[in-house]
Specification:
The chain has 411 residues and is mainly alpha-helical. The protein has one domain. The longest helix has 28 residues. It is globular. One of its GO terms (cellular component) is membrane. It is a multi-pass membrane protein. Keywords: Ligase, Membrane, Transmembrane, Transmembrane helix. This is O-antigen ligase.
Length: 411
């Protein structure tokens, strides 16, 4: 059964990549490239998966270079390009003067950050996007998330009743996907399914939402419970008109029932250990935050203003120039790039919030918020590349005619 689902997953990838190349969906191909690693891991393809992702980005570049129509036409793109470029210039200068510049981690960090975050973001901002391309991206994510959720739930069923009685929560995934990255991916799908596009399919929205929710909770990640569900609910409130109040209340009721039933079938101790904010992992993260922040505060004036240099974050935790980090990119940026670097980074967040104040917010905006919140609890600057990519994606979306059309439909 799993082999059949894997085959369908791969077919979905090939189909959407083929359509994307044929229609020259430059932005869409970049967005898909960020998710290919998860999908390929789900089907058991671990070797060269990053090469596949990079190849798709470079295909997008070739399509951009060969594009005959008008691409870069809006002034807002300049703002996005400027903010990304200024941060990267400061990041590069910090790397050049960093004591970790020649270390393996320093070299790896500058290379990975450039390839996986900066380059794709700039490529998106130099292009354009239409409603067909956004729908194509939505379809790819939803179909992929459906098949991956199916694998997770099947694995849970196969594992038997022992997992229900265990006082340790056994995390489930698809293939060798990191449960944290799995929950982020399913979280994006859960947000997308709440969009106005599916407002006339309330029954199916509830069914698919339950499906994604259960698979996400089975991953054992707190992200689904504390970030994704509140964001999805808030998005649904903001994106649907007042006539949908009854449907909204029913949707909330369905979520409450599903979460209650899910938690009730497991051992209470296992649920507390896994999902409580007072669990061991949560306390460990807080300890890491404190160590790195205290190390930053204890530095001299220069390190407080411009940081200690790219690749030095491991030092704040008592290590050398290795990939050890506090799982909070605000603290990581503050330690490595100082107050100036953090200010340049936060300008992106403030810009997105400001330009969306009087506009209808799409799932792209809420996905950006999700990735930003996740970056405060998990991963480092390199592994949270989606913050930069979805910043660029938001600039492109709000700069297009799609956002205006959506606003008019909801008035």
């Amino acid at each position: 059964m799993e082999n059949i689902i894997n085959a369908l997953l791969i077919t979905n990838v090939f189909y959407h990549v083929f359509v994307g190349i044929k229609r020259k969906f430059i932005t869409g191909l970049v967005i898909i490239s960020t998710m290919l690693s998860i999908i390929l891991t789900a089907v058991g393809i671990d070797s060269n998966k990053l090469l596949v992702c990079y190849t798709l980005i470079y295909i997008s570049l070739l399509l951009f270079l060969s594009y005959n129509g008008t691409l870069f036409v809006r002034k807002l793109n300049l703002l996005g390009l400027g903010l990304i470029s200024i941060f990267f210039i400061f990041f590069s200068l910090s790397y050049l003067f960093s004591p970790a510049a020649l270390s393996d981690y320093g070299l790896w960090k500058i290379k990975q950050f450039t390839i996986t975050a900066i380059f794709p973001s700039l490529l998106i901002l130099l292009g354009k996007i239409g409603s067909k391309e956004v729908r194509w991206i939505e379809n790819f994510i939803l179909i992929s998330a459906f098949f991956i959720s199916l694998i997770v739930i099947i694995n849970f069923i196969i594992s038997g009743s022992n997992v229900l009685s265990s006082n340790w929560f056994i995390r489930h995934t698809a293939g060798d996907i990191n449960p944290i990255w799995l929950s982020r991916f399913l979280g994006v799908a859960l947000i997308i399914i709440q969009s106005p596009r599916f407002s006339h399919k309330f029954f199916w929205v509830c069914i698919i939402s339950i499906f994604f929710l259960c698979a996400g909770l089975l991953s054992g990640s707190k992200i689904i419970l504390y970030f994704v569900i509140p964001i999805a609910i808030f998005y649904r409130i903001r994106s649907h008109n007042n006539k949908d109040l009854i449907k909204f209340m029913l949707f909330i009721l369905v979520l409450i029932i599903v979460i209650y039933c899910f938690f009730s079938i497991f051992d209470p101790l296992a649920i507390t250990r896994r999902f409580s904010l007072k669990s061991g992992t949560a306390i460990q993260r807080i300890t890491l935050y404190k160590l790195s922040f205290d190390a930053y505060k204890s530095g001299n004036f220069k390190s407080i203003v411009v940081g200690n240099g790219v690749g030095t974050i491991g030092q704040s935790l008592g290590f050398g120039y290795v990939r050890e980090y506090p799982h909070n990119i605000i603290i990581e940026i503050l330690y490595e790039l100082g107050f100036i670097g953090l200010s340049l980074f936060l300008l992106q967040l403030f810009t997105i919030i400001k330009i969306y104040l009087n506009k209808t917010k799409s799932w792209i905006f809420y996905t950006y918020i999700l990735f930003f919140l996740c970056s405060l609890t998990s991963g480092d600057l390199v592994s949270n590349e989606n913050i930069f990519i979805y910043f660029a994606f938001n600039i492109m979306y709000v700069n297009s005619d799609i956002s205006k059309q959506l606003s008019e439909q909801l008035v």
